[in-house]
Design brief:
Elements lengths: L2 H10 L6 H22 L1 H6 L3 H10 L1 H19 L3 H6 L1 E5 L8 H16 L3 H8 L6 H6 L1 E5 L1
Antiparallel strand pairs: 1-2
Helix pairs in contact: 5-7
Length: 149
């Protein structure tokens, strides 16, 4: 990791969030968003008689689901510095330059690149496993870090 970033984190009394916490926050967020989708499409989901019908229904709304994910990620990261999953896991997102929660543009950038990374077989997340600063593609793109609260 860049020594300048490392020393700034040390000066601010911050530590990088472990991969396990980030993974659990991701799981919580995905479950919440999936539940929201099921609630939004409730009548259609419950009227589906087979698994194939449910898959077709889900595929019909994949664009709306991606937009929902971008809005969710961007709003919560901009407003609170963390999604609901990150809040539960006591981690948050900070901009490297300011060491504060990201602004609107940074949050939107991070959310969009995150969804793109998911569409590319989660390669951006795998990248974060190997990166010394634990930065995924969306973190690198937005110049953010995920730290413990």
């Amino acid at each position: 990791m860049n020594e300048e970033i490392n020393s700034r984190l040390y000066q601010e009394g911050m530590t990088l969030a472990p991969i396990k916490k980030r993974g659990m926050a991701f799981f919580i967020d995905e479950m919440l968003l999936s539940l929201l989708l099921i609630i939004a499409l409730g009548d259609s989901f419950f009227s589906a008689k087979t698994v194939e019908e449910m898959i077709i229904l889900t595929n019909t709304f994949v664009l709306e689901y991606m937009v929902m994910k971008v809005v969710y990620q961007a709003f919560f990261v901009m407003q609170y510095g963390a999604t609901l999953g990150k809040i539960v896991m006591k981690i948050r997102v900070i901009e490297i330059d300011t060491m504060q929660k990201p602004n609107v543009i940074v949050s939107l950038n991070r959310a969009i690149v995150r969804v793109i990374s998911e569409m590319l077989f989660y390669l951006g997340f795998v990248w974060g496993l190997m990166d010394p600063a634990r930065q995924t593609w969306h973190d690198k793109s937005a110049k953010t870090l995920v730290v413990n609260v």
